Structure formats: structure tokens, C-alpha cells
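Dear colleague,

Thank you for sharing your sequence with our group. We've completed the structure prediction you requested, and as agreed, I am returning the results in plain text so they can be pasted directly into your records. Please verify that the sequence below matches your submission; if there's any discrepancy, let me know and we will rerun it promptly.
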Amino acid sequence: MTTMTDTSNAARFREFKMPDVGEGLTEAEILKWYVQPGDTVTDGQVVCEVETAKAAVELPIPFDGVVHELRFPEGTTVDVGQVIIAVDVAPGSGPAAAEPEAPAPAPEAEAPKGRQPVLVGYGVAESSTKRRARKGTETAPPAAAPAAVQAELNGQGTAAVPEARPLAKPPVRKLAKDLGIDLATVTPTGAGGVITREDVHAAATPSEPVAPAAPAVEPVVPVAEPVPAGARETRIPVKGVRKAIAQAMVGSAFTAPHVTEFVTVDVTRTMKLVAELKEDKDMAGVRVNPLLVIAKALLVAIKRNPGVNAVWDEANQEIVQKHYVNLGIAAATPRGLIVPNIKDAQEQTLPQLAASLGELVATARDGRTSPAAMAGGTVTITNVGVFGVDTGTPILNPGESAILAVGAIKLQPWVHKGKVKPRQVTTLALSFDHRLIDGELGSKFLADIAAVLEQPKRLITWA
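Please find the predicted C-alpha cells below.
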């Protein structure tokens, strides 16, 4: 192993440390390396995937060069701040005659103008501190030089300066790739010139609509590992997302006094509305399903019963009323249950909400949900009906005071207009924190959701 303390070579190597990819997380497990020693990497290239207590995250490297050493194998849990990869940023240079490196970035007080904000795993953009390759001083063949030095020469022999790489997080890059959008053509609206999901959607032309995501009601079923012949038991380490889920559920169950109420409702008209919306040109390019209408019904019910959208602050002995709704959708993934949420869902139109649900589920299915997407939820929907289950008694997501379980929608005999007829029926279950939501408020909230699903026209009359 090459030592990092050799003063003649120290400037050749740069080390990439495990960043804090969440909110104060202290460790992450390396799930997969996408590069090996000897591979060329460029600024922003994803080099590995790690799993934290909240999600799986891809880490891009913030500089160019050739991979010199991977410090940890796959499956290793690494503390935040530990070096995970070393990169030779001056490949091909002799050990004692390496060309001097470009000056290190100036201290914060002397940071150059235009300094870009840090994205997770990116570090500070270094375009202002990189040098062009000097003519006549190359000691390595062009194929071995870092990507920043391999600028294609123009007719006068001058190195062409590569264009700056658009700033966007990995999930946004994936969305752009799926939609066939070149990020270089997208106008960023995020802080510091960061491209957001909304920017990518805005860049999509009518001829290239958003690809329909997997049904929001379809679960991500983990694939069981084959059991060796003769094995009588299997031990599975509890770590990462699964460990965090267990701790959160125990904390929630034994902290907040749970109460669960149930209501069975005729949703035949809702199912007809879903069928009509699927044919509506305004809903083209998005997935329409019962969960969409249920989510909208919940938002209407919160507007009528705002006390549900609150949380108990034990430290300050206060009830914190939220004037926005970050709508969580529980999703089963191979790594466990996660609850990403749609920010400010109350502001979204029905087509926008449908698109948000589709993105949320597609990202969860791919295992690319970011910690930020799971933070700050105010109320959650869990759809146990996809498993054919009639209902359940859900546990509150930590930091929230209400969670709605949606059961399977089944054709059942139902008294309708004085006659027994086959109708589409489902059972809803609402669990809530009885410290701040009493029986009256919880009952009114659940009854309002049921009323909207029974008569969807209330989405208009109650909005």
C-alpha cells in the first residue's frame, strides 16, 4: 500500500472521506463500489453506494483522477469522516518528479467569488482553482492524465476549457436520465444554482411526458435469500434502515398514547372517478389510482380539522400546530419500511399530486430515497390493502400525530338506496396521538375522509 506520508508523492493523492449524508448521522455501510483501483474518475462521478440509518445514498467524488486505493471492502460500516478512497490526481508522474499540484483552495475567508454551495458528497466546486494543462510540460501520455487535463486541443494548440457540470443531486440526475433531459439545458431554480426535480419536469416537452411510475399502491416486495439445504435457522444482522425502523417504532409505541378508530365506507363513486381521471387529458403522463383520491381526501379533511396536523413537543410542553402538510407515504423496500413525504402537499393540484406520488414511489422502488425526503413529515398514509388486508392498527411515524391505514377495496354486498347491491367497499383505520387529538377531533377527521371517498364531489364543495 502506498503511504500517504511520502512528501514527494503526498500532493499526488487526494482522499475522499465518508460525508454526513443525513441529519447528524455518524456512520454508513458501504453497499457497493462502482470503481476499482486503476479506474479513471471525474468530478461528480458516483463511486459507491452507502446505506445510512435512513436510506441508501450514492456518493459522487468531488475531483478527477485515477483510483489508487479503496480503503474499505463492501459490507463495512464506516464512521463519518473516515477516508474511504484515495485518488491519484496526477497519474503517470514519476514518484520523485511529479508535477506540482495546483494551489489548494483558499481558506473560507479568502474564498473566490462564485463559490458554490456543497451538495451531499460533492464538496465545493473547484472549477475556479483548476489549472489548464501547460504546453510542453506533459510527462505522461494524454490517456493517463486526469480528465481535467485531458482537454481537447483546438487548431491553435490551446486547451479547451470544459463546461461546468450542472449541479444536481443523484436522484434528480436519474430523473433527468429517465426523461431524456440534458441537464445542461435545464434552468436551475434551486439555491446556489442547484437543479431541482421541478426544473427537470419543466424542461420536459409535451412530446416527452413524464413516464408513468409504478402504481403507488403496488408494494416493493423484498426478495428472500435462498435457504441452504438443511438449515434450521438464519440470522440476519439488524443494521442500517432496519435498525432505525425498529428503534423508531419502539420509541413511538411507548411514547405517544395510541388510539385507533375504524370506518367502513362505500367507495364505488371514488372508483368511478378514478376510471374517469385515467381518461382525462389533463392527467396524461401521470399514474392515477385510488391512493391519489385518498390522499386528496385526507388533505381536504386536514383543512377542515387542522388540529390533527400537529405534534406534541415534550421538551417545551407545547402543541406545535403545522400550517403545511408534508404527506408521508409508507413504502416497503428490500431494506425495510421507509416513509418519504411530499413537501407542502396541500399546495398541489390533483395532477401535481399524482406526479409527486409517482416520483416518490419510483424513487423508493429504486432504493434512492434521500434522507431529506423522509424528514419533516406531518401525517402519513399506509396502504395495507395492496396485500389483500382489510385494515390494521398502524403505529405513528415518529414526529407525527396521525397515520391513516387504507384496507383492500373489495366488491361486497352493501345497502344502497334501500336495496342490497354489490358495491366497492374498503375499511379505513386512523391511529392518532391521544395527548393532542381527542376522540371528537379524531372521529371528525376520519369521518370527513370517509365522506369524501363516498361522495368525491366534496373534493370541490369542501375545498
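Summary note from our side: The longest strand covers residues 419-433.

Kind regards,
the structure core
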